[in-house]
């Protein structure tokens, strides 16, 4: 695979932003992930530029919750662990 070099950005230039439809899709996927976590009694808290998942079997910081699935959530949980 060949590497592709991109020209450097001008000093102080902002990176291109997400299109409105992409931002809406991202927020929709985050809403689905929050609902999934809520159904599993897991609290989702913003944590800087990441997300903190906190529940009886989970205490994990992840970079992004958009696209989180039930099987992905199960992989993050620790069996036989409780905050109590």
Give an overview of the whole structure.
This protein is an alpha+beta fold. It has 2 helices and 3 strands; from the N terminus they run αβββα. The chain has a 3-stranded antiparallel sheet with strand order 1-2-3, covered by helices on one side. The longest helix has 20 residues, at 20-39. It is elongated, with a radius of gyration of 17 Å. It starts with 19 loop residues before the first helix and ends in an 8-residue tail after the last helix. 12% of the residues are buried. The mean pLDDT is 81.
- Report the strand count: 3
Distance between the termini: 50 Å
% residues in beta strands: 15-25%
| Spatial extent as radius of gyration | 17 Å
The string of secondary-structure elements, in order, is HEEEH
Major sheet: order of its strands? 1-2-3
Q: DSSP helix count?
A: 2
Q: What's the overall geometry?
A: elongated
Helix content: 25-40%
């Amino acid at each position: 695979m060949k590497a592709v070099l991109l020209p450097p950005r001008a000093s102080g230039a902002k990176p291109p932003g997400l299109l409105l439809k992409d931002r809406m899709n991202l927020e929709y996927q985050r809403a689905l992930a929050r609902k999934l976590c809520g159904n599993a009694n897991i609290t989702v808290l913003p944590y800087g530029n990441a997300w903190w998942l906190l529940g009886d079997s989970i205490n994990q910081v992840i970079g992004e919750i958009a696209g989180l699935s039930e099987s992905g959530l199960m992989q993050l949980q620790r069996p036989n662990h409780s905050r109590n």
